[in-house]
Automatic annotation (TrEMBL):
InterPro entries assigned: ConA-like_dom_sf (IPR013320), DUF1349 (IPR009784)
Database matches in SUPFAM superfamilies: Concanavalin A-like lectins/glucanases
PANTHER family listed in its UniProt record: REGULATION OF ENOLASE PROTEIN 1 (PTHR35332:SF2)
Name of this protein: DUF1349 domain-containing protein
Organism: Streptomyces andamanensis
Superkingdom to which the source organism belongs: Bacteria
Amino acid sequence: MDAEPLALPGLPFALRPYGPDGRWAYADGTLTGRAGPRQDRFVPPAGESLESVSDAPRLLGAPPEGDFQLIARVTVGFGAAFDAGVLYLHVGERAWAKLCLELSPDVPTVCTVVTRGHSDDVNSFTVDGDALWLRISRTGRAYAFHASRDGARWTFVRVFGLAAAERPEETLVGFLAQSPTGEGCTVTWEGIEFRPYGLTDLRDGS
């Protein structure tokens, strides 16, 4: 039986679970999800395929066409290397991207993955503590990742395109929890906000 869609205040689209059971719940402005043991979504650069076991709980929905920003403050219950809370972008089975607050491998770090058939893996900067604001933006055919310690001043992380980005009707955005080497990881997202417009400057975050 398909799970019921989850409606969050402020999001103009419903969210549906994908992948393993994430125990998704929403209450008092906080979304909670949990990755199980050794769950991740990553296609090794030297590998040949996305194995069925290489997956992690995702809660995703289809944004309206046009530019947008998805913002949330993520808090991660770190327990093992590469545990992470993620904002996730999906435009095809082998075309997707992750903006992560990740224990990489023993220091909280802003990390990104862009998958175009195979995944890359980039560390940006370290973070004090287990919480950070994250933002995915779409402006035209470009996507951008930014992070912020206070939700007001944003640090540019990455700008990129995806092969399927010219088909915005297939785009999904939302949330992912992962625990590639551990026994599980609980993540919360607060202050979730959707803005139906892009950025003036993808690099400075304005």
